Structure formats: structure tokens, C-alpha cells
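ok so I'm stuck.
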Amino acid sequence: MNEKVHVVNHPLLSHKLTILRDKDTSTKDFREIVSEIGMLLTYEATRDLPLTTKEIETPICKMEAPTLKGKKFAVVPILRAGLGLVDGVLRMVPSARVGHLGMYRNEETMEPVQYFCKMPRDVAERDVLIVDPMLATGGSANAAIDIIKGYGCKNIKLMVLVAAPKGIEVVTAKHPDVDIYCGAVDQGLNENSYIVPGLGDAGDRIFGTK
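replied:
not stuck anymore, here's the structure
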């Protein structure tokens, strides 16, 4: 596996991912668990955030204690399914700014089409975490990374629940500087470019539009 690809092998995450894959999981449970997995993945994706220290006083004594260095951070969901991961990220990094990137897949060409983009004014100065439940063909992810790089962003990561080998190959080939964090790498894609075994259409399952 490419060193830029980080598969988060954790019993809690694996258990929750199994619930997501189950076709009988309710919309409410699906939405809540997507957010919970978002928290677990964010924990790993932020492992390299820089620390400094500040003086505090515990009930016992004064000490120099570690604290985040204040590096600016932004999360950018690919609409609409990516919205399901944002709450989990913000619970871990409450100070993060949120950009929104609307994309859909042309059903004939299978190419991503952008329809909305709104970023924080200072996004170029921020570490950016792009979030989307699925990394299938890699088309939407690559387009999103291209757009974010177009703003001048240097430190970009991609976080997904489930990835297909093709999507990983496509993204790492075009953007070798981008780290990918995922909960699982599945077998591949079917004739409709859905991940197998996957978990179906994440957007429909998050928002109850299936």
C-alpha cells in the first residue's frame, strides 16, 4: 500500500463500518454512525498537528502543558454526501472553518460536474481536510483537490469511509502529495462504478432519499 494511504484499522471503526454496510440500518443510525466514524478518522488525520506549550495551574501545581499550536484548519465536504462527516470533524476540531464544494456525477460520462463552491477567505493559509464517504473512481476527489489547490492550498488531505483500489490509484497518481485516510479498502467497482461490497449510495442513506 502507498505510504500516503492510511487505512485506520481499529475495532470500533470496523464494527461501526459493518453497521453502515448493512442494508437494513435505518437512516437515523446510518447518519449518526457516519458522524462517529468521522470523529475516529479525524483523530488519525490530525495526528501530525503541531503542538506548543502554555503555562497552566493544575489543582496541584503549575506546569508547562501541551496545546495545539493554533495552525489554521478547514474541512471541505464534497456535497452532498460529504456533509455527513462534517459534524464528526467539528466535534474533534471545533475551531475549524468549513468550505463547501458541490459536485455531481454526469451519469453518461461519469465525470464530476461542479455546481457550487464557497471557501473561507483565508483557505490558502489553512490545512484542508476534504471529506466524502466514498472514494470510487477518484474523479470527484481529483476534481475537488484540483479546485482546492487552485486556491493556493499546500497541505491537503482526503478522508473517506470506504475506498476502492482504482480510486486510490487515480488520486495518488495525480496528487502524490495528498494523504488519504479511510476506514477500509474494498474489492473494487461494479459496472455502475459503485464500490463493492461498499455501502450503497451514501448520500441517499444519510439523508433518507433512497
